[in-house]
Amino acid sequence: MKPKHSYAYLDLEAKREIRRKVLKALAIPGHQVPFASREMPLARGWGTGGLQLTLSLVGPQDVVKVIDQGADDSVNAANLRRFIAQVSGARTTTDTLEATLIQSRHRIPEERLQEGQILILQVPIPEPLRYVEPSDARARELHALGDYSLLWVDLFEEHLRHGRSRKGAAYPVLVHGRYGMDPSPLPRWDLPKLHLAAHITLFGAGREKRLYAVPPYTRVEPLAFVDRPFQPEPILGSCRRSGCRHVFLNAIPQEDGSLAYEISDQGYMEKLLAGKTSGPLFVEKEHG
Amino acid sequence: MAEETPLLELVKVCKAYGDRWALKNVSLKLYPQEVLGVVGASGSGKTTLLKILYLQETAQGEYRLNVPGWEGRNLLLLSRYEQPAARHYLAMVYQDAAQALRMGFAALTNVAEPLVLRGERRFGVLAAEAQEALERADFPLERAGDPPASLSGGERQRVQIAKALVQKPLAVLLDEPTTGLDLLVQATFLDTLRRLKRQLGMSLILVSHDLSVVRAVADRIVVLYQGEVVEEGLADQVLEDPRHPFTQDLVAARL
Amino acid sequence: MLQVVNLEKRFFLHRLGREVLAFQQVSFSLQAGEFLLLEGPNGSGKSSLLRTLYRSYWPTAGQALLQTPLGTVDLARLGDREVLAIRRERIGYVSQFLDPRPRTTALELVAEPLLWQGVAENQARHRAAELLLELGLKPELLETFPTSFSGGEKQKVNLARSLIHPYPLLLLDEPTASLDTAAKLALRERLRALKQQGTAIIGVFHSLDDVSGLVDKTYSLEVRANVASRA
């Protein structure tokens, strides 16, 4: 029977275009590359950019993991995973080490990714200058001139007023020493994982129609004053199910107003609870 | 006396907007440690002249900067990507502080900005140098954390001066910096400029339509009329012994 | 040290279509340590002559040859930058007008020319204080802003500012107007001391008593009729 649509839902031209743009993005680390964002069977704002990237790259031999805030079983992650499997015939998994493609909203898994793995992040606002420079045309000029003074000014003001930066996510980084990039919506905890990583990281913003990339072994450095170094979030508790204190924890408000914590990376937590060996982590166990 | 080398010079600079000539064959020289006043009526080309000096406008003619590495180069021919390097030696103070400052960020932040742009990445150093510049500009330090939006006109101009000073420029260009300030504020601001000229050996090009402002600080004056230089000379000379009819009118009109 | 040859100043007032002659064919010479008194009725061009020598006015004819360690220069023909240098180092000028500077104290105003010369701040302030007190300025006024001073007090500051640096040539335009007797005496002694050090002085003085014993020569300017108006 003739299939109702092309392989992995996108037509050949769409896939070609996105692949070419991905190659261009990898060649210019951190630089935003516009692409013709197609209609997807989910609304804008729900990961259409990330989805288009995944669909352009997936093949029948791939193993796909999809997470949302670290969880494989959230409604969005589950829907996306089912859809991808359906249109591509690829196998799916919750195990970070097994996956060849990992699409994620908001988090990077704790187990260190290896060469050959591709991490695809869903991005709402790709422009790091968006909040300090409202004009898009002017922002493009600033990128071309390598002029990130606005970001530094913003950072200086934060240190002046609060003694530190109070940004949680979307902390601006400098990629390959050249382009300012918004790593949104990763929390600060995940930023060091991008630096000189063995894996490829792709960022897709469907609504904004831009994609960008960090190729392997590339510098990704959060903007910070040399004498006020970048600090990831401190770990404030321990996981109530595993007792773990060394990876990113979600804070869950309790009825009595207190906070309970759980490991955000669900796949990793399940390995710990089942006593299975996990891979080496991005972050050393001693920290946090 | 040996021939002195000017810091910068314009040679026969012309600028037209459509078929209207804003500047015609304007030549001038700025020497080290001097204040050059540029006077003229509105529409005489004074502001255009400053914009050209700050590389914000194109023009025909030559613009030379006599610093190592820039000998023989005409700054009017630089591409947009080379201009920031030349602008390194210059700083501009505008009549309206909002054109130069980020009105919502602290005064100290504004002054630190050029240093960050030049590559300084230590917060401690940035804050200290910015503070020192504000002090030199006679800015009340207890207000260093306040944004320019909440400062008075005179204080805003001092923030601009500090921002200019922190760049250690060869020359500072000032476009009607005291216009709109009340007289006492004007006078104290001009005092600051004079002191800076002496202590830091700065050169300034000060554009004003107000002759008393120019008289208070300038060593030499250039008079622009309809885009051309009609008179130039020592400040007291141009103001006490004006020779061109326009300058005579201008001087006679002083209240 | 100064030789003036046929110096002339005319003004061309375009709007009025008139030419005004301030002085013409002025010639004299002056040696170091000599005091030349300029004389003449009002309007004879005495102030204009001083201003022309100081280059506040452009001379329209003639020469003013000044000897300097670097050779003889013609003040009438010097470029602007050279004039500025000469004013800093070689020629001092006193008029009756003190430039209003609201936030500078009397002491700072007088010390400033020394600071321009590179003299250390505390030394400059010390010498400035000494001179101001010598001219009779009340000590409590040293650190005050001259804007609130009386005419005589302002004039003392004015004088001190021009006398603080030993210029080889000093031009004085009615410097004793509004000074009290004690200050006039102090000035006279100061001028005497300067003469002994070799300063040449050209002065316009309302009252000859102020400079008794100092004058070595006089030069008289006569009133010249205005040249006929140009159409």
Features of this protein?
heterotrimer, A: 288 residues, alpha/beta, 7-stranded mixed sheet, 3-stranded antiparallel sheet, 12 strands, globular, C: 231 residues, 5-stranded parallel sheet, 9 strands, disordered C terminus
Q: Which helices and strands appear, and what pairs or packs with what?
A:
The complex is a heterotrimer of chains A (288), B (255) and C (231).
Chain A: H1 12-27, E1 33-34, H2 48-57, E2 63-68, H3 75-88, E3 91-92, E4 101-105, E5 118-122, H4 136-145, H5 149-162, E6 173-175, E7 179-181, E8 200-205, E9 210-214, E10 220-222, E11 249-253, E12 259-263, H6 266-274
Parallel strand pairs in A: 2-3, 2-4, 4-5, 5-8
Antiparallel strand pairs in A: 1-9, 6-7, 6-10, 8-9, 11-12
Helix pairs in contact in A: 1-2
Chain B: E1 8-17, E2 20-30, E3 35-39, H1 46-53, E4 60-65, H2 83-87, E5 90-93, H3 107-117, H4 123-136, H5 153-165, E6 171-175, H6 183-200, E7 203-208, H7 211-217, E8 220-225, E9 228-234, H8 235-240, H9 245-252
Parallel strand pairs in B: 3-7, 3-8, 5-6, 6-7
Antiparallel strand pairs in B: 1-2, 1-4, 8-9
Helix pairs in contact in B: 3-4, 3-5, 4-5
Chain C: E1 2-13, E2 18-30, E3 35-39, H1 46-53, E4 61-68, E5 71-74, H2 80-89, E6 91-94, H3 106-116, H4 121-134, H5 151-163, E7 169-173, H6 181-197, E8 200-204, E9 217-220
Parallel strand pairs in C: 3-8, 3-9, 6-7, 7-8
Antiparallel strand pairs in C: 1-2, 1-4, 4-5
Helix pairs in contact in C: 3-4, 3-5
Structure description:
The complex is a heterotrimer of chains A (288), B (255) and C (231). Chain A is of the alpha/beta class and 288 residues long. Chain A has 6 helices and 12 strands. In chain A, α1 crosses α2 (48-57). The longest helix of chain A has 16 residues, at 12-27. In chain C, α3 (106-116) packs parallel to α5. Chain C has a 5-stranded parallel β-sheet with strand order 6-7-8-3-9, with helices on both faces. Chain C has a 4-stranded antiparallel β-sheet with strand order 2-1-4-5, covered by helices on one side. Chain C has helices at 46-53, 80-89, 106-116, 121-134, 151-163, 181-197; strands at 2-13, 18-30, 35-39, 61-68, 71-74, 91-94, 169-173, 200-204, 217-220. At the B-C interface, α6, β9, α8 and α9 of B face β1, α2 and α3 of C.
